[in-house]
Amino acid sequence: MNKLKKSIESIGLNFKNQILILIILDIALIGVGIVLYLFINNPIIIAFITFVIVLVNYLYLSRYKTIKKTNDKKVLFEFVSLLPFFKTFIENGYTIYQSLTELCLFTGGELLTRLQQLINDIDEDKSITPFINFSKTFNYLQIEQLMICVYQMIDEGGNENHIYQFQIIFDKLRETTVKLSVENKNNSLANMSIFPLIGSAVLIVMITFGIISVIGASLNGI
Q1: CA distance 104 to 106
Q2: Is 0.70 surpassed by the pTM of this model?
Q3: Using an 8 Å Cβ cutoff, are 177 and 77 in contact?
Q4: Strand, coil or helix: 13
């Protein structure tokens, strides 16, 4: 339960509210099942509603991981889109600290929170640690390489070699984000194709239950 709570809260949702919504859905489905059973008076309805409840609970609870991945990719894309501004600031004589502070003016939400945390950590720790910790929030090796390069600009000065190295890493990172964007679109199309399959599966189950009900009624009539 703690793992589920952390997963829900990590994407900015309220744990209690999400569980309450799920409970309401379950109660509603149970209510529908009771009504159907009273009208049709067939035990198969109970099995069908149980199947639907399990399916709904699985889909509802598994979506948080997907939302987390989607949000993380959005933050990554946004960060990469800000890097040209960062490079421009450096080339115009801004310090790394000043450049990071300026980037905060161009963003918001989760990325702003991460950048502000990085700036606060730099205030307390002048080592490479704040930059590594920042890169770990993205979980991409290229981000770590980029932040190491940024730290080297502080430690050794923002000379042309470091700016050139920064550009190389940035170009590779931009290629990665383009590939991820294409993958997202393909996955979105693939997910859309799943819904007709789910609908067909539910329809087949309903038809099967209907056939079993007719057979049962016929046997009882005999």
Answers
A1: 5
A2: no
A3: yes
A4: coil
∠ Cα 114 147 187 (to 5°): 65
Phi first, then psi: give them for residue 167, nearest 5 degrees. -65, -40
Taking the C-alpha atoms of residue 166 and residue 174, their distance in angstroms, rounded to an integer, is 12
What pLDDT shows up at residue 159?
63
What's residue 119's pLDDT? 94
Helix (H, G, I), strand (E, B) or coil at 1: coil
- Give CA separation, 81 vs 52, 135, 168, in Å: 43, 16, 15
Q: Return the biggest CA–CA distance within the chain.
A: 93
**Cβ neighbours of residue 183 closer than 8 Å, sequence gap 6 or more:** none
Distance in angstroms (rounded) separating the CA atoms of residues 69 and 191: 15
Q: Where are the alpha helices (DSSP H) in 96-159?
A: 96-103, 109-124, 129-136, 141-156
Q: Over the chain (222 residues), what is each successive 10-residue block's mean pLDDT?
A: 72 81 87 79 76 84 81 89 89 88 90 93 91 90 89 73 83 83 62 58 60 58 51
